[in-house]
């Protein structure tokens, strides 16, 4: 937390210049907040953090070179007190969980930036966490649910690409019966009605993406 007479120093990391410009415009109207740096990928984010050591960092999730989760983990490993909020268009309880596990202390949806940007920056600078109510509720609703195994996630990604069980078995060097068992298990864990429904749930929750 910066001294009361100094502005909160903010680093923004995103590969979309227009978004950074929008954030800069909002911050410019706040006498207690100052934008001190910008970065467009995770590697630049780590270098910029080392150089600037801002009070608050806003970090996009999906970026070239190194994604936001990996960048947060690297920064928090080196600077355990870093205050970082994920800046993303994506909701999904699994993405939130991964961000928290990496060390994120806040979560900002790009669709609600104008409403929550300043409050989030101030909250993080004061040592608080900030997760929107709908995201916290989504996360809580899945606590205790059995997670998918790494293999089940892998199978689910191929299902999302339109592959049959036979094709997935060939890709992974497994029997078709083994793939069928994985599909049955992942459908049950996601409480889905079928393969297509399982993919839809996984996309919404952030278990897989179509990138």
TrEMBL record:
GO function terms (MF aspect): DNA binding
Domain of life: Bacteria
UniProt keyword Disulfide bond present: no
Keywords: DNA-binding, Phosphoprotein
InterPro entries reported in the protein's UniProt record: CheY-like_superfamily, NreC/VraR/RcsB-like_REC, Sig_transdc_resp-reg_C-effctor, Sig_transdc_resp-reg_receiver, Tscrpt_reg_LuxR_C, WalR-like
Modified residues (4-aspartylphosphate): 60
Pfam families, per the entry: GerE, Response_reg
UniProt-recorded name of the protein: DNA-binding response regulator
Organism (species): Salinicola socius
């Amino acid at each position: 937390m910066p001294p009361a007479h100094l502005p909160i120093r903010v680093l923004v990391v995103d590969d979309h210049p227009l978004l950074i410009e929008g954030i800069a415009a909002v911050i410019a109207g706040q006498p207690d907040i100052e934008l001190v740096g910008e970065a467009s990928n995770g590697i630049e984010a780590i270098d910029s953090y080392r150089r600037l050591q801002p009070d608050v960092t806003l970090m996009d999730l999906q970026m070239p070179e190194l994604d936001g989760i990996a960048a947060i983990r690297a920064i928090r490993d080196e600077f355990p007190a870093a205050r970082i909020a994920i800046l993303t268009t994506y909701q999904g309880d699994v993405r939130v969980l991964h961000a928290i596990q990496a060390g994120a202390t806040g979560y900002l949806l790009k669709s609600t930036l104008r409403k929550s940007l300043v409050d989030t920056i101030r909250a993080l600078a004061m040592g608080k966490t900030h997760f929107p109510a709908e995201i916290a509720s989504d996360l809580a609703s899945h606590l205790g649910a059995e997670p998918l195994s790494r293999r089940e996630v892998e199978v689910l990604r191929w299902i999302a690409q339109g592959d049959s069980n036979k094709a997935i078995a060939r890709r992974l060097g497994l029997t078709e019966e083994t793939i069928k068992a994985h599909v049955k298990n992942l459908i049950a864990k996601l409480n889905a009605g079928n393969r297509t429904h399982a993919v839809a749930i996984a996309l919404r929750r952030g278990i897989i993406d179509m990138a």
